[in-house]
Amino acid sequence: MENVMDKVRKDPLFWIFLVFLCYPFLPYLGNFVSLGTELLLWFIFTLSFNLCLGQTGLPSFGHGAFYGLGSYAAAISFLRFYGEDSFFLPLITAIAIGALFGAMLGWMIREKRGVYFAMLTVVFTQVVFGICWRWDAVTGGEAGLSGIDRVSILGLNMKDPHTYYYFCFVVFLLCAILIRTLAKSCFGMSLQAVRQNYIRAQYLGYNTGKYKFAVFTISSAFAGLAGGMYCMLTQSAFADILDWSKSGDVVMATLLGGGTVSFYGPIVGSIIFILFKELLSALWDHWALIYGLLFVVVLSLFPTGLMGIIINRSRGKKSKKGLLPTPAKQGGGAEEQVEQTN
To answer: Which of 120, 176, 267, 319 has the highest count of CB atoms within 10 angstroms of its CB?
Structure first.
């Protein structure tokens, strides 16, 4: 029992869950419950995106499309299909639409790599943005969709910001555990093989196209869920969340936090991005300029992001204390070390 408790205490997710469990009661920050809810939704969004970028090495620079499609799917289904007494059905629809469009795009670009893969995702985002911006009869065009109401479920008043916050907290908890379990599974290890050496993975018998298609679909489903819950938070859906800049935001947040080297990087980056956006935008209208310069400076000095700094420092301390084995003790010769590096 003590060993289990020690593992729980050493798990970073435990402390993240604990902090956000108490978030509404924190001094000052507790006054901004909607900000905390947005943070939880961004955690789901960035963790889903990192399945593509950090886990598989897929530069999905148009991932905001699935976030936006999930938001519109929840809004349209609520207003025109399920009625005003629905809550879970619009969210399920958001997941389904995110997964459907993710599967469609993922199947078309599953064999593409590098800049071609990235540009095709950006093009897809802009096409979806143009459709939602112009299709007044369905999406409301420039005016968007409003009038979405959070109804009571199981005796809980979802109109109350604190109640909705804890609903989003529970969803985030489940999604984080599920995504981490997926990342550590055999499937997740196969995705890492695709990321580390695409050609070698093919020679080893991996169907890299199918793996890319599968992870793209799963990631899009989670992004659609985050978008649907964001629709319920703002009680509206607008085309601006489909713009390419939204996809750029999730890329910056993930890289800044160190998503390519740590599972928790997207969470760290989301906290920095959202809080900086709120603080800087209150001080200066052109806050994005400061954030962009900060992003360039940090990644120029620390390419692995903030979590990369923490990991490297912790490894340095362990090596000084003799807790890490030296290359000679690992038993690998020069050829084996080169093989592992490649």
So the answer is: 267
What's the confidence (pLDDT) of residue 317?
A: 63
What pLDDT is stored for residue 219 in this prediction?
A: 95
Contact assessment for residue 171 and residue 225, using Cβ atoms and an 8 Å cutoff:
yes
User: In angstroms, what CA-CA distances link 309 with 199, 262, 312, 323?
Assistant: 30, 11, 5, 19
Report how far residue 179's alpha carbon sits from residue 165's, in angstroms, rounded to the nearest whole number: 21
Rg (CA), the chain: 21
Question: Cα angle vertex 236, ends 230, 239, to 5°?
Answer: 90
Q: Is the pLDDT of residue 201 over 80?
A: yes
DSSP secondary structure of 142-198: GG-EE------BTTB-TTSHHHHHHHHHHHHHHHHHHHHHHHHSHHHHHHHHHHH-H
- Which stretch of DSSP H or E encloses residue 90? helix 88-108
End-to-end CA distance of the chain: 41
Cβ proximity of 223 and 98 under 8 Å: yes
Give the chain's mean pLDDT: 84
Each residue of 46-82: pLDDT tens digit?
999 999 998 998 988 889 999 999 999 999 999 888 8
> Which residue bears the tokens 């090596």?
319
